[in-house]
Amino acid sequence: MNRRQPAATELLALLFAGISAATLGACAIDSRLDGDEAPIGVNVSQDALEQRAYIVSKDSSELTIIDLKKLEIVGRVNTGGVGNHMAELTPDFSQAFVDSPETNESIVVDLRTQQVISRIPLSGFPTHISLSRDGKLFGVVEEDDNAVAFISAKDGTLVKRVTGFQTPHFVRWAPDGQFAYVANINAHYLTKVDVDKLEIVGTIPLDGFDPDKDGAMAPDENGFADAQIDSDGILHAADIGMGRVIMYDTNTQKKLPEIQVGPRPWIVYAEHPFTKVPVRIVPNWGDQTVSMIHALSRKVQSVVGASDQDSNGVNYTSLDPNKAFVMNRLREDITVIDTTSGEVIDRINVGGNTETASTTADGKWIVATVSNANRVVVIDALSNKIVKKFDNLGNYPWSVTIPKGQNYCH
Questions:
Q1: What are phi and psi of 303, to 5 degrees?
Q2: Which helix (H) or strand (E) holds 100?
Q3: I need a surface site. Which of 14, 145, 170, 286 has the fewest CB within 10 A?
Q4: Are strands 311-316 and 300-304 parallel, antiparallel or unpaired?
């Protein structure tokens, strides 16, 4: 879950925002923040919608919209949410679904008019949201209820709520469209869901653990934070407590030999739009290394000093597939790795803690949140240089969503 505890002043703001959100109910609201210009209107081209970055702020309600061509802010939407976690886009990029854990809802924003158009009631602290590969369903994890809510991307209705997980942390969808895989952060196994029936049909345990026994539980978030699926259909999921990675071929539905990585690994960053990246990287919090899993040989290579004890992201670029960027929250920088030599080749000082980032679909920009500085930076993926800073961008900007980009959360 990785929930940062807000300060006392923030709690008062959250309480006030929660009361406001409850008053609004399921109605649409005037979503502009004070002082903003009027929404851009309905005459927004498809190209314009695809050239944007959406920034979710955790400790304030706004969804900030950045034009990636002009590198300018073109909108701030007051969602009315509290503790907003991340956003996911509809297939045509015309709407954003923003999860608000503290008000137990997903808030739907029309991205042409920049207005909130509906609020979908959920429960159990909804955090991470992902879109199925056919664009029909959103999967929203309701962590405190051990449930996943499946929502229609077409009309925002709740299709089905499935229970039986162990603090579900992310839903990932197989390329074949038949199954989804859910990471349980409080268990040593993944859960397999039949997409047509929306039913649990099996589990994928770490070697030596039986999901039918209590011994497969992983309390204190020592299980799986994510289960990302690469372009070859191979699922990668790092078990935090055991330091091992489950490899699972979603094409043949067969488990591959597990891989030992460093102590307390977080997430194997394997799911992104770039097909020629040769490695899948996981930050190891226990020894501040990263483990590079080579896609073809599945051999593991360790890079020393590439991460810290709370590194929450790894980004890639199609413009230089042998380069990776590691988001270091505590060290307040971004490490650049040459994945061929296994060496750290650069460190980008961003002036605060990086929580997450997204790479644009063309591989040109990496857009990273610098949360405690209320800043977002845009990095040239080839030169490693910061080309733009956006300051005073909400309160604790937390996650970034870019159409067709490398999007993740933590």
A1: -115, 115
A2: strand 95-100
A3: 286
A4: unpaired
Distance CA(54)–CA(76), nearest Å, equals 10
Q: Which residues form the domain of 83?
A: 1-121
Report yes or no: 335 and 329 within 8 Å, Cβ to Cβ.
no
- Rounded CA-CA distance 379/151 in Å is 34
Q: How far apart are CA 264 and CA 312, in angstroms?
A: 12
Numbers of helices and strands, H then E, in the chain: 2, 31
**What is the distance, to the nearest Å, from the Cα of residue 352 to the centroid of all Cα atoms in its chain?**
20
Instruction: Read off the pLDDT band of 49 (50, 70, 90).
Output: very high
Asked if residue 329 is part of any domain, the answer here is no
Q: What is the distance between the alpha carbons of residues 345 and 90, in angstroms, rounded to a whole number?
A: 37
Dihedral sign for Cα atoms in the order 94, 315, 310, 385: negative
Read off the tokens for 376: 């977002």
| Backbone phi and psi for residue 44, each to the nearest 5 degrees, phi listed first | -105, 125
Q: 131 lies in a domain?
A: no
Gap between the Cα atoms of 257 and 207, Å rounded: 9
Tokens of 350: 């961003």
H or E segment to which residue 366 belongs: strand 365-370
Domains identified in the chain, total number: 1
User: Does residue 251 belong to any structural domain of this protein?
Assistant: no
- Spatial separation of the C-alpha atoms in residues 192 and 189, rounded to whole Å: 10
Question: What radius of gyration do the chain's Cα atoms show?
Answer: 20
Phi, psi of 18 (to 5 degrees): -65, -40
- pLDDT at position 322 over 50: yes
Residue 17 lies in a domain: yes
279-314 pLDDT, tens digit each: 999 999 999 999 999 999 999 999 999 999 999 999
